[in-house]
Description:
- By secondary structure, the chain is α/β, with parallel strands linked by helices.
- It has one domain.
- It is built from three helices and eight strands; from the N terminus they run βααβββββαββ.
- The chain has helices spanning 8-19, 23-39, 116-127, and strands spanning 2-3, 44-49, 54-59, 67-74, 77-82, 103-107, 137-138, 141-146.
- It has a six-stranded mixed β-sheet with strand order 6-5-4-3-2-8. A two-stranded parallel sheet has the order 1-7.
Amino acid sequence: xxxxxxxxxxxxxxxxxxxxxxxxxxxxxxxxxxxxxxxxxxxxxxxxxxxxxxxxxxxxxxxxxxxxxxxxxxxxxxxxxxxxxxxxxxxxxxxxxxxxxxxxxxxxxxxxxxxxxxxxxxxxxxxxxxxxxxxxxxxxxxxxxxxxxxxxxx
Length: 154
């Protein structure tokens, strides 16, 4: 699989963002990231170190609106966000949120990503993507924003 461009600087930044968290949450972020990177090897990772959350979105392009799923972490834990979650089939009623677009689930452990109910949501989100994931290339990591002011990560 080809790599589209050097991501070493982004990798160092991402590691520093994750290092701000309590070690237990940092470990969970890294494990969830590894799982989703394996699931979506050609997706771009869009990184946001915002005021409330640290977010890694898995997108078919470099636009956040093409995001399939995102890891969202704060000092309380890690969640999985579905950018277009309001339109996903959710027969088990595990999605949370009442907005017109986004839905999420809390991930008590990285192993929650392997739960068949969660896997079904991830697969449905990928299937309904407006822009299909590219083939034959490895996705890149792009740091989109870093807020100067942030809530404590620990």
